[in-house]
Amino acid sequence: MKQSDTYSIGIPGNKWGEEEKKQWLLQQEVKRSYQKEVVAKLEPLKARFDVEQYGELSYDAGTYPLFVVRSRQWDSNKATILVTGGVHGYETSGVQGAIRFLETKAESYSDQFNIIVAPCLSPWGYETINRWNPSAVDPNRSFYEDSPSQESAALMRYIATFQLKLTAHIDLHETTDTDNSEFRPALAARDGSVHNNWNIPDGFYLVGDTENPVDEFQKAIIEVVAQVTHIAPPDGEGKLIGVPLSQEGVVNYATKALGLCIGFSDAAFTTTTEVYPDSPLVDDENCILAQVAAITGGLDFILKRG
Q1: How far apart are CA 137 and CA 271, in angstroms?
Q2: Terminal-residue alpha carbon distance, the chain
Q3: 18-305, superfamily in CATH?
Q4: CA torsion angle 133 135 139 142 (round to 10)
Q5: CA–CA separation, 292 vs 170, rounded Å?
Q6: Buried b (16+ CB within 10 A) or exposed e, 219-256
Q7: Domains of the chain, residue spans
Q8: How far, CA to CA in Å, does 145 sit from each of 87, 142, 152, 167, 219?
Q9: What is the DSSP letter of 247?
Q10: 157 closest CA partner among 211, 118, 115, 102
Q11: Calpha distance 237→243 (Å, rounded)
């Protein structure tokens, strides 16, 4: 189905200028606290992990420190894995799932892996429940050189300091009903174009990389997550979010070309999780546990293959 050709800001068919972006920003409101719901949860982790500030976002809307949590038993001979959450700040279980992994599971993997977790790349987006940053830029389309997104650029700079090849990068996301009701209509308005909505998948799925699909890795994650929550079935055309299935619960995107988070890291194993928090079959806790299961399922697969 096609979305409405009108949006509350701008003229249909015309790209937004600075005035329209200002109008959009004025409509955004803080709905929750990054400090209380994210940063405060990192404080107890300092007893077991290294918690490091890797950057700070600076906007007229405010400044936001950015944090990573790292395992302490760092060893250049071990495989290094990166977990990212909150690239889209509104996707709650991505942020909380990354933190829950640290609270409950990460330490048990630290003998085998160097672990880097960036739980919330987009704090302003988290607080205002937004896909974009205050400049109306989508961080998860901005992982490339000279990025227009402070959020994306900060993480890329930090990871580059390690001068190593990542073994795995798992990026935690959600697909929500507001993708069709708000965010895709806003995108069409901003770009002066028309976007086709897709049916929102009812369940968990993964987005792999068309250039490096690592099918067995994706399959292993799906099998583990299926023990926690339901896997999204394809629509009537055999697709998820408008893309043909590569296997049960998995579609592949051109991650580098699209500037997606998992595309910048050049890891051997990459995936983007997608939880559906609006399903009547789940609750907030189930969504968080599904994200944790995706991480552990991926790490267990890597360990088993040697």
Answers
A1: 22
A2: 45
A3: Zn peptidases (3.40.630.10)
A4: 180
A5: 11
A6: bbbbebbbebbbbbebbeeeebbebebbebbbbbbebb
A7: 18-305
A8: 17, 9, 10, 22, 32
A9: B
A10: 118
A11: 9
Determine the Cα–Cα distance for residues 137 and 254; give it in Å rounded to an integer. 19
The pLDDT assigned to 1 comes to 36
Amino acid identity of residue 96, one-letter, is Q
Rounded to whole angstroms, the Cα distance separating 138 from 148 reads: 9
| pTM of the complete model | 0.97
Assess whether pLDDT exceeds 60 at residue 4: no
The mean pLDDT value for 281-303 works out to 98
Structure tokens, 242: 């408008």
In the predicted structure, residue 71 carries a pLDDT above the cut 80 = yes
Encoding tokens for residue 228? 């926690």
Q: What is the total residue count of the chain?
A: 306
d(CA 170, CA 303): 15
- Output phi, psi for 213, to 5 deg: -70, -20
What would the pLDDT profile of 166-217 be if each residue is shown by its tens digit?
A: 999 999 999 999 999 999 999 999 999 988 878 999 999 999 999 999 999 9
SS3 label, residue 234: coil
For residues 172 and 270, give the distance between their C-alpha atoms in angstroms, rounded to a whole number: 11
